[in-house]
# Entry
Amino acid sequence: MNNIIFEHPLNEKMRTWLRVEFLLNQLNTHCHFDDNNGLIFFHALSELLEIIERNDIKSDLVKELELQKQKLVLWSNIEGVDHDLLNDLIHQFDDFIAQFNAIGRLGQPLKDDRFITAIRQRLMIPGGCCSFDLPSFHLWLKISQERRYSQIENWLQHLSTLDKSLTCYMQLIRQLGEFKRFVYTNNFFQETNGDVNLIRIRISLDKNVYPQVSGHMTRYSIRFLALEDYDNVNSDGIEFELACC
# Structure
């Protein structure tokens, strides 16, 4: 059965982590491009730098890594746990924290790069990256792929600690939630929980519905809506799975 997983953050920090994770995935997916689709990469890079500039991503993520590391240390005292796995995660978090502490402001070399800055400024203008607007970018797209890829890899290297640490952190968070089966009745579902950062909703693609979530860390509600109004899908009685992380 083909399923789709929807994720919804229940606090502002998790909302930021999901957005940063999404943009990093966009960068890694579209880092190899030709002269017809290069702006996809730079749109994602510009949006990521915008988030980094508006938030203290480095400090907040270090705090989260420290918090999760402390939890892992406590778990190591529980009988039957996989100590090798726990120790490996603890060492990974220690390495990430040390790497963050060794760098200055996150992404600063990218913010100072005149080539990237010129593109970011034009991205705010509809159609502002035409060849007559950015002749330097037009030329750059025509140089050899090997030379372009080398420069892109250098740019992404400045984000590698963020990318690897956030991937590890989000993987741990997602593994904290176990999927449980529920039935959606009366076109409404509500749940009261403790301290939850993220909910994950798994549902069959055949249902052709998506969730609309509202609420916060301790209480939230879910409604399922059809993709198009004319689909006229009866969502009542739909089975779905929910994981609270």
The chain is about 50% helix and 20% strand. Residues 83-102 form the longest helix (20 residues). The first strand starts at residue 3 and ends at 9. Strands lie at 3-9, 180-184, 189-192, 198-204, 209-215, 219-226, 238-244.
